[in-house]
Amino acid sequence: MDERLTKSDWIDHGLQTLANRGPGALKIGAMAAELNVSRGSFYWHFRDIADFRSQLLESWKDWTTQRIIRELEADHDDPDRLKSLLSRAFAGEPKTDRSIRSLDKALRAWAIDDDNVAAVVASVDADRMAYISKLLEETGVESQKSAHRAAFLYWAYLGQPIVMDAGLSSSTAAAIDDICDLFMK
């Protein structure tokens, strides 16, 4: 690989490393060797490993939450944004969904032992549930009910990856429609 890696190259590699091998693999020397560059390439972009990890967490938050919200909000006139979000969550594109799920799983495991990571994960959880609640309110669900329903939908999203039967690991469009009807009443 070229000696002139960008900050994004390092972050992307860090996210992939985290998803595949966990936070213990986020070592400067090992990542530099995997990228076939010197450690100096790392220090060109980051003050230290703590700075890298902080930026890695922000990138994860943006990629798995804020980007999706921005994409859905770009079509703010679409009355089916909740359905679009649920389709992405429960019947999503396998490769993209697996990447997001692997990262979420790795971050949640890391958060058990690191209070800073736990705070970022809690912030992502709050942002995601608030957005689901907002979408429910836009369909006419009362504020208090929308918060409870959003939490329930989010819990389902978090639990879906641990279902062992592959036939139950995603939902059909008809099932998503039915779920939307159930939660939007």
How are the SSEs placed, and which strands pair?
Layout: H1 7-21, H2 28-35, H3 39-45, H4 49-74, H5 81-90, H6 94-113, H7 115-138, H8 143-159, H9 173-183
Notes on the protein architecture:
The chain has 185 residues and is mostly helical. The chain folds into two domains: 1-46, Arc Repressor Mutant, subunit A; 56-183, Orthogonal Bundle (Tetracycline Repressor, domain 2), CATH 1.10.357. The chain has nine helices and no strands. It has helices at residues 7-21, 28-35, 39-45, 49-74, 81-90, 94-113, 115-138, 143-159, 173-183. The protein starts with 6 loop residues before the first helix and ends with a helix. This is TetR/AcrR family transcriptional regulator.
**What portion of residues belong to β-strands?**
under 5%
Q: For the CA atoms, what is the radius of gyration?
A: 19 Å
The helix content, as a percent range, equals: over 70%
User: Please, how many helices?
Assistant: 9
Summed over residues and divided by their number, the pLDDT gives a mean of 88
CATH topology of the largest domain: Tetracycline Repressor, domain 2
Helix/strand order? HHHHHHHHH
In terms of per-residue confidence, which ranges show pLDDT below 50 for 5 or more consecutive residues? none
Domain module count: 2
The first-to-last residue Cα distance is: 54 Å
Strand pairing plus helix content: what structural class? mainly alpha
Extended strand count: 0
Instruction: State the shape.
Output: elongated
- The second-level CATH architecture of the largest domain is Orthogonal Bundle
What's the quaternary structure here? single chain
Tell me about the biggest sheet? none
CATH class descriptor of the largest domain: Mainly Alpha
